[in-house]
Specification:
Blueprint lengths: L9 H29 L5 H28 L2 E3 L3 E2 L7 H5 L18 H18 L1 H4 L5 H23 L4 H4 L8 H19 L4 H5 L6 H20 L7 H28 L7 H15 L8 H25 L12 H19 L27 H31 L8 H6 L1 H5 L7 H4 L2 H12 L12
Antiparallel strand pairs: 1-2
Helix pairs in contact: 1-2, 1-4, 1-10, 2-4, 2-6, 4-6, 4-8, 6-8, 6-15, 8-14, 8-15, 10-11, 10-12, 11-12, 11-13, 12-13, 12-14, 13-14, 14-15
């Protein structure tokens, strides 16, 4: 007897499952705790509930049809894969493959279940990221409907176009681990959803005080180290490129975090270093290096960390004050900046800095090695490809996100926003519990307050003023 089939490599399979688990930890608990600590205390439970439920809904959607839409055989030419389940024994234990990439990369040495779970945690974290754009006013019930639709019609399309061998993959677009598929998508869709749903209550925007910075630190730390699986797992093998991607990830992040802190000390109105600013810089570095991690060398990683952090720092302070539509949309946690803009610039910098000597897969005999080459290495066309691929993501994701919300509102007849009474109270009104309960709310008073809100809600029209 033998423990595994001849095509399976224990080391590669172990690393793929480990990397997937690290990425999963970036969602639960990392983003649940990070976002839960960043929001006002009255929204901590709502935030954590949305994170955990998104993780659940995405997995169910993924195994029933969405994985094959992103990584299966084509259904609509090079635009979308054929939706199928992966619940049978052959699908779970058979050798993993991405049909359109067969022959263009080494054969996988792990089963489909490892591939599907690894790609699932990437899919799950994307809508989780843009929870930060709409927190503090989106209806929890609407979110439960929105997530499966968004994964189906937005994320699966992005994944197929760039990772599943679809149109932009065929054109040579480089997105090592999701600068476009995940972070640019999260920034664009989150910003669109925030614009449609409207701002938080005015008093909540003016008093947007984090409820627990220690929780933020715990979440940020898990997020950073979990990124080793995020970028280190994407070569699909425990290879030299995986190791380089991990080192580049941490290097770019360290540079980006210190860049933001120094810029805060030199140029911010208070001229003080802040932990929240440092976390923003950290995220910019993690996001910026994501599309580039295995394609650039260490010098490229430093440049990406420096550029992405400084660009987002300037955008963070300038755009919400002076530039439409940023000055009209309430992106509660600034996802469009730290993920959307950082992901965009990281992807564009791949078009400049991709080093052809950074080998992803080694060629044998007459087969060439697989790598990327940017404009600084005599391939200027790569920058144009990166720009057009980003433009596709921006247009598609914004339009389809808007359509999904309109379908939920007008076809399913669901109110996108919570009522003003629920917005005033927060977690107790929506979930009947809170993160930091008082004696009064532990008692039956919590239920009576929630019931009163439910009774009042139908009498309230959906407001469009600044306070709704």
């Amino acid at each position: 007897m033998v423990p595994y089939p001849s095509w399976l490599n224990a080391g590669d399979n172990a690393w793929q499952m480990t990397a997937a688990t690290l990425v999963g930890l970036m969602s639960i608990p990392a983003l649940a705790v990070l976002y839960g600590g960043l929001v006002q205390k009255k929204w901590a439970m709502n935030t954590m509930m949305m994170v955990f439920c998104t993780f659940c809904l995405t997995l169910i959607t993924w195994v029933l049809w969405a994985f094959k839409m992103g990584f299966g055989t084509p259904l609509v030419h090079t635009f979308l894969g054929d939706p199928r389940t992966i619940l049978g024994h052959t699908a779970e234990q058979g050798q993993g493959s991405i049909p359109l990439l067969n022959g263009l990369m080494p054969n996988f040495r792990f089963p489909t279940s490892s591939l599907a779970y690894f790609q699932f945690v990437f899919a799950a974290i994307t809508p989780i990221l843009f929870i930060g754009s709409v927190i503090g006013r989106i209806s929890f019930k609407v979110w439960l409907v929105f997530v499966p639709l968004w994964i189906t019609f937005v994320y699966a399309v992005n994944a197929f176009l760039l990772w599943g061998g679809g149109y932009w993959a065929g054109k040579g677009a480089l997105d090592f681990s999701g600068g476009y598929v995940i972070h640019l998508a999260a920034g664009v869709s989150g910003f669109t959803a925030a614009a449609v749903i409207g701002p938080r209550l005015k008093r909540d925007r003016e008093r947007a005080i984090p409820n627990n910075l220690l929780f933020v630190a715990v979440g940020a730390g898990i997020l950073w180290l979990g990124w080793n699986g995020f970028n280190g797992g994407d070569p699909y093998f425990a290879s030299q490129d995986a190791a380089a991607a991990v080192l580049n990830t941490n290097l770019a992040t360290a540079v980006a975090m210190m860049t933001w802190i120094i810029m805060d000390m030199a140029f911010s109105p208070e001229k003080k270093p802040t932990f929240l600013g440092g976390v923003n810089g950290m995220i910019c570095g993690l996001v910026g290096i994501t599309p580039a991690a295995g394609y650039v060398n260490g010098f490229g990683a430093i440049v990406i960390g420096l550029v992405c952090s400084s660009v987002v720092w300037a955008a963070w302070y300038y755009l919400p004050k002076y530039v439409w539509p940023f000055n009209r949309v309430d992106d509660a946690l600034g996802v469009v900046y730290t993920h959307g803009i950082a992901g965009l610039f990281g992807g564009l910098l791949v078009g400049l800095l991709a080093d052809p000597n950074m080998i992803v897969y080694l060629g044998l005999g007459k087969t060439s090695s697989v790598s990327g080459a940017g404009a600084f290495y005599h391939h200027p066309h790569q920058l144009l490809i990166q720009f057009l691929a980003a433009l596709t993501i921006i247009v598609w994701d914004s339009v389809v996100t808007f359509i999904i919300l309109m379908v939920i509102k007008y076809v399913l007849r669901m109110k996108l926003r919570l009522s003003d009474e629920q917005l005033e109270i927060g977690d107790v009104a929506v979930h009947g519990e809170e993160a930091y309960p008082t004696d009064e709310l532990i008692s039956t008073g919590a239920a009576s307050i929630a019931d009163e809100v439910v009774v009042k809600e139908p009498q309230k029209a959906s407001a469009t003023s600044d306070d709704s």
